[in-house]
Queue: 4 jobs
Job 1
Amino acid sequence: NPSNHVRIVEVGARDGLQNEKTLLPAEVKIALIDRLSSTGLKTIEATSFVSPTWVPQLADAAEVFRGIRKVPGVSYPVLVPNLQGYERAREVGVTEIAVFTAASEAFNRKNINASIDESIERFIPVMEQAQADEVAVRGYVSTVLGCPYQGEVPVADVVRVARRMYELGCDEISLGDTIGVGTPARARAMLHAVAQEVPIHALAVHFHDTYGQALANILACLEEGVRVVDSAVSGTGGCPYAKGATGNVASEDVVYMLHGMGMETGIDLDLLIATGAWLAAQLHKETASRVTRARTAA
Ligand code: HMG
Ligand code: MG
C-alpha cells in the first residue's frame, strides 16, 4: 500500500527564476526562499551553481545561499553542473546537490555542451567528492517525454540514463518533462519502465505545464506509486535551453489537488498561495497558478 504522504520539491527559486526576463535582486530571492520555508515545504531547491555566462539569472547563487534562513528539517539543494560548481557551492555551506543530464543527445549538447556520456563522465568526480563529504545527490533526467531538438525520446534511453545515475549513487532521480509535451498514459508507461530498474521510492516526477497536461500527468504517476513531485510556486520556470518550454506546474495547484484527494503534504496551502501571489507581483506578471487566481479573485 503506497503511502498517503507526498513530498513536494519546490523548484521555483531555481527552475522558476532561471528563465525569467525580470532579474530579481538577491534579497528578493532570499525573501522568496524564506517565505517558502515557513509554508511547511521540506525540500526547497535554492539556486544553481552553473556558469553565470550560461544562466545570468542565477549568477548570485553564493549570495542567495548565504543569505537564506536554514530552517531545521528543511533541505536546500542546489544544481551543480561540474566540480567547479560543486566547489563554489561547498564554500557557502551547501549540503545537498543536484546533477543533471538528459535522455536526449541533442538537448544535452544545447544545455550543457556535452553528450550524455560526457555529462555522466563529468559528474563522476562530483559524485565521488559528494560521497566523501556526505553530501546528498539528486539526479535529474531531462526530456523524458520529448525533446525540443530531436522530437521523440525512446523510453529505453530514459531507463538507461536513470539507471546509470542511480548506480552512480544518486539518492533520488527526478524525471523531467522539460517541454511539457507528455500525456498521462505515456507518462505512466515511462515511469513504469524506469521503476523496473530504479526503486519507485527513489523516483520523482518533474512536469512543465506547456501543453496543460501537468496535473493529469502527475495524477497518472501517483497512481503508478510515485510520492515525490517537483513543482514551482506561481508556476514559474522553464529551461533557457529548451525553446518554447514554459513554466513548471504550479505548486499551489498540485497541493490543492493532493489535499482534495485526501493525501497529505505538510504544506499550508494558504501560505503557499500568499507566497505565489507575492512572487508574481515581484515579477510584474500574473500568476500561472489557477488556484491562486481563483482564491485571489475579487
Ligand atoms: P562550457 O562553456 O562548455 O564549459 O559550459 P567550460 O568548462 O569550457 O567553461 C567555460 C567557462 O565557464 C569558464 O570560464 C569556466 O570557468 C566557467 P572562462 O575560463 O571562459 O572565464 N564555468 C563556471 N563558472 C562558474 N560556475 C561553474 C562553471 N563551470 C564553468 N559551475 C557548463 C559547460 C556545464 C558549465 C555550462 O553549459 C552550464 O553552466 N550550463 C548550465 C545550463 C543550465 O543551467 N540549464 C538549466 C538547468 S537544467 C534544467 O532546467 C532542467 C531541469 O529543470 C529538469 C527538466 O525540466 O527537465 C533540471
Ligand atoms: Mg525543469
Job 2
Amino acid sequence: SIQPAERLQELPTQFFAKLVGKANAQVAQGHDVINLGQGNPDRPTPPHIVRALQQAAENPQYHRYPPFNGYMFLKEAVAKRYKEDFGVDLDPEKEVAILFGGKTGLVEISQCLLNPGDVCLVPDPGYPDYWSGVALSGARMAFMPLRESNNFLPDYSSLSMDDVNKAKLMFINYPNNPTAVSAPASFYEETIQFAAKHNIVVASDFAYGAIGFDGQKPISFLQIPGAKEVGVEFYTLSKTYNMAGWRVGFALGNAEVVRMINLIQDHYYCSLFGGIQVAAAEALTGPQDCVHELVSVYQSRRNALYSALDRIGWQANRSQGSFFTWLPVPKGYTSESLADRLLEEAKIVVAPGVGFGESGEGYVRLGLLTSEERLQEAVNRIAKLNLFG
Ligand code: PLP
C-alpha cells in the first residue's frame, strides 16, 4: 500500500473540516442553517476589479508564463498602498514578495527559517495555518497564551526561557483572528525589542489590516521603527477587497526574508496568472471607496449583533477589528458542547474556541459574514435556548 511520508503525518488535523461536515449534514436534512462559523467573505469583489481581470484576460501577453516572482507593477502597487495607508516605504524590488494568498507565505516562512529542533512561538488561540508550516519544517511550537486579562496580547515575560532561546520565528496577528482585538503601537514596540534581543524573526499576519471598528484604524507592524530589521508582514487582498477566491497576498519588509520566500516560491510556482496580477494592482491603486464601504458594512453588522446579544444577556467585549466576534460561553458549557447545541437545536454554526488552541477554550467565534437580518434571526433562535438561565 502507498504510505505517506512522515512529515505528512505531522500535519495537524483540520479541525474545521469536522465543523463543515456537521453543518453540511444539517443542510442536507433540509434545515435552514445560519453559518457563522467560517471566515469566508459573503460579498462580491468590487466590479471595477472584475472588469480589470476581464480585460487583462484578453491580452495574449498574460497567456504566457509570468515572470518568476511576479510582475513589478504589482509590487509597485502594493508599495504605493502601504505608503498611502501607513506611511511605510517599501522597495518593490527587494522588500515585496507576491504570494498565492497570505496562507502560502505563512506556511513557507517556517520552511525558510526553521530546522528540526528549533522553536516557533505561536499565539494560542491562533490561526491554525501557522501550525502546518512548523509541522512541515520539523520544528516545535511553543504557544504564547492570549488572555483576556492582557487584552489578548502575548505576555513575553511569562514565556519559558528555554523556548525563547531556541525560538527562530514567531507569529503575531492583529487585528486578531479569533479574538477580534487590535494591538496598540506599544505592543509592536515591545515585540520588536523582544525579537531583536533574542534574534527571532517576526511574522506579522495583517490579514485584517483594513478592518478596524469605531474609527480605530489598525496599525501596521511595519509602521514601527525597527520592524523591517526583525521581520515581515503578511498582507492579503482576500478580506480588504472581498477577493478570497482570487488568492493574492504579499510578504513585505525584511529583504533577506523576502528573498528566502521568493526562493521557495521559485521552486513551487512561477507566479500568479498575469490577469489576476493586473486586477490586484487595480484593487490596490484604483478607487478605495469600496474599502470604506466594506468597513462600514461590518461595523453595522457588529453593532446589530452586539445589541441583539445584549438584549438576551450574552455579554461580551466589542470586537475592535477583523470580521469576527469572540464570545465567552455561558456556564455549564465547553466551547464544543455549546457549538453542538447551537447547531442541533438552533441550526447555527459557530466555531468552538478550542479549535484555535487550548487557550481558546471558554469562547466561541461568530463571524459577521451574513446580513444584519440573518444575524438578528440567529440571536432570536439563540434566545429560545435560554442559555443564561
Ligand atoms: N491569516 C488569518 C488570520 C486569516 O484569518 C486568514 C484567512 O482566513 C489568512 C491569514 C489567509 O488569508 P489568505 O490566504 O486568503 O490571504
Job 3
Amino acid sequence: MTARIIDGLAVSQQIRAEVAERAAALTARGLKPGLAVVLVGDNPASQVYVRNKVKACQENGLHSVLEQYPATLTEAELLARVEALNEDPAIHGILVQLPLPAHIDSHKVIETISPLKDVDGFHVASAGALMVGQPGFKPCTPYGCMKLLESIGCDPKGKHAVVIGRSNIVGKPMAMLLLQASATVTVCHSATPDLAHFTRQADIVVAAVGKRNMLTAAMVKPGAVVIDVGMNRNDAGKLCGDVDFEGVSKVASAITPVPGGVGPMTITMLLVNTIESAERAAR
Ligand code: NDP
C-alpha cells in the first residue's frame, strides 16, 4: 500500500481563502478583525513564528499588531500590556508567544488574557470549555489536525484513535477533540509501556512527541491514518516529524508529510479563531 499524502498546504490555502472572505465581509461592516502578537526577548525561532503569524494576517485581510519587548520586560509590565489589549476594541485575538523568559510566569500571563480573545486556546477557561463541550477557542494545532482528517473524509466516529503525547497544547486537546468526534481515544506518553501495542490497534494515530522516527511501520496497522505533529531536525538539519515517513507511508492509508502537513495548519487555525472572535464581537 502507498499512503495518500495529506496536503496540509492545500487545505491551509483553502481555509485561508475562506478566512479572507470572512475578513472582507467584516471589514465592509466596519469591523476589521485584529490580532495582537506579543513577543518578549529575542528567541530566533519565536521571531520567525511571530513574523509568519503577522504575515498571514496581512495576506488575509486581518489587522495585526506586533508588540516586541526586550527580555528585561518585567512580569508586571507584560501583564499590564495584556490587560490593555483585553480592553482594545480593535483587537479580537491576543497571542503571547511562548516560551517567555524564565522570570515571567507563563501561566499567569495566559490566565490574564481574556478568554474572549484567547485565540491560542491555552487559557484554563478554553481548556475547560473544550473538556465539557462548550463553545470556546480550540488550540490551533489539534484543531488543524481535525481539519486535515476532515479534508480526506476521515470521520473519527467509531474509530480507535491513539494520540502519542499529552501536552496541554497538543496531546490533551487533540484527545478531547477526537473524543468529541466520537472516536475511542487512547492517550500514550513517556510512561506508556509497549507503545506499539497501542498504536498497532489504532485506526488513527496522532504523533505529538518531538522525537524523530519514533513511529515506525511495524507500529502501524495497515490502512491507518497517520497525523505527524512532530517538528524535529535530522542529522543534516532538515525539518522532519516524529514518523518514519518512508516506512509508514507503505503501511498507512493516509499520512501527513513534514514539512507541508500539520505545520501550515497551525497558523491557519489561528486566523480562523481570530475571525470567529471578531464575528462574535460584531454580533
Ligand atoms: P511536549 O514536549 O510538551 O510533549 C511531548 C509529549 O510526548 C509528552 O507528553 C511526553 O510524555 C511524550 N513522550 C516523550 N517521549 C515519549 C516516548 N518515548 N513515547 C511516548 N510518548 C513520549 O511537546 P509538544 O506537545 O509541545 O510538541 C510535540 C511535538 O510537536 C514537538 O516536536 C513540537 O515541536 C511539535 N509541534 C508542532 C506544531 C506544529 O505546528 N506542527 C505545534 C506544536 C508542537 P510525558 O508527558 O510523559 O513527558
Job 4
Amino acid sequence: MKIGITCYPTVGGSGVVATELGKLLAEKGHEVHFITSSLPFRLNKVHPNIYFHQVEVNQYSVFQYAPYDIALANKMAEVINREKLDLLHVHYAVPHAVCAFLAKEMASHPVKIVTTLHGTDITVLGYDPSLKEAIKFGIEKSDAVTAVSDALILQTEELISPRKTIQTVYNFIDDRVYYRRSVEELKKSYGIKEDEKVVIHVSNFRAVKRVKDVVDVFHRIQDEIPATLLLVGDGPEKSSICQQVRTLGIDKKVKFLGKQDNVEELYSMSDLKLLLSEKESFGLVALEAMACGVPCVGTNVGGIPEVIVDGETGYIRPLGNIEEITKASLSILTDDEKASIMSEASIQRVKEEFHALKIVGQYEDIYFELVNGE
Ligand code: GMT
C-alpha cells in the first residue's frame, strides 16, 4: 500500500508514534511518504520504502501569518496525485485532519483518510472555541478515526460529540529497542552507588506533567532509603523545578539530564518510574519504562490506568496524593521480590498488549478495510 503520514515532526509522543509506525510499515513492505514541516526527529534510518516531502511555507510579506495549513494541504494533494497514495494517516486532529480533507478534495487521485487522536488535540484544544468546530469537522470528515485509549474516546465524545465512531488503537513499543540491558558501568559513571534505588521521570516539563509532585514524592522517598532521581527532558517548568529541588536541599540526589535520545539505557538502570500527570491520554513513557522492566506508579488520569495495571505492573494512585504515591513507591523500592515480580509482569504486559507487530497489524486492518473494502 502507498501511505502518506503527517505528524508533528519535533519531539513529542504523537510524532514518535507516527514515525515509528511509518518505519515499521516500511519494513513490512508498504511505501511510506512522510509529509511534514521538517524531517521527523525519529526518522533516523534510511529505508528504500521511506520518502520525505517537506512542506514549504510561503513567507510573502502581505501575509500577517504564514499559511502553513494551506501549504500542508497543497503538499498532501501534490503527493497524493504524483505518488498515487492509497491513504493519508494523520496524527493529531488539528490542523492535520482538516488539511487532509482539503487535500482529498483538491486531489484528482482517490484517497482515504485515517486520523489518530493523541490527547492534547482533544483534552486541551477541544476546549478552545477557536478550534472546536474545526476539530469536530476534521474527525467527521475522516474515513476512520482512532484514539490511543478508551479514556480519550470518552473525553472526545463528552467534549466534541462527533458523529463518528472512534476506535481505540493503543500505542506500541518496538522491543528490539526497548529492553532491559546491563548498564552497571553506566550507573557507576553517573556516580550512583550500588545500594541506591533509582527513580526516573521523563517528560516535556509542562505543567500538566506535575513534575513538582514527582520531586515532592522523591523528597519523601530519599528520607527513607538511599535514592537518586533522574529527571529527563526539558520544558517550561524546568527552572521552577530546579528551584524546588534546591529549596528542599536534595540537589545532590537529583540529576537533571535534559533531553536524551537513548532513554532505554536510563530506564535499564532505574527501579521505579513516576508518571503523575493531571492529563495523559496514554503515557507512552510508561510503556517505554515497562518494556525495560521498570514498574511504574501513575495517577488515575486519562489512559494511564489502561497502561499500568494497579497492583500488577505498578500502582495507580489519586492525582496529587503525595502521601499515597510515596507509600506505593516505597512498597516497591523496599521489597525486592515485589519489584522483580512487577518488573517481569511489566515486560510481559508490553509483549502481550502493546507489541509493535500487534498494533501495526491493527492499523493495517483499518487501512485494508478502507482501501479494499475488506
Ligand atoms: O505528552 C505530551 O505532552 C505530548 C503529547 C503529544 O501530542 O505528542 O503526547 C500525547 O500523545 C502521546 C502519544 O500518543 C501520549 O502517549 C501522551 O499521553 C499524550 N499526552 C497527553 O495526553 C498529555
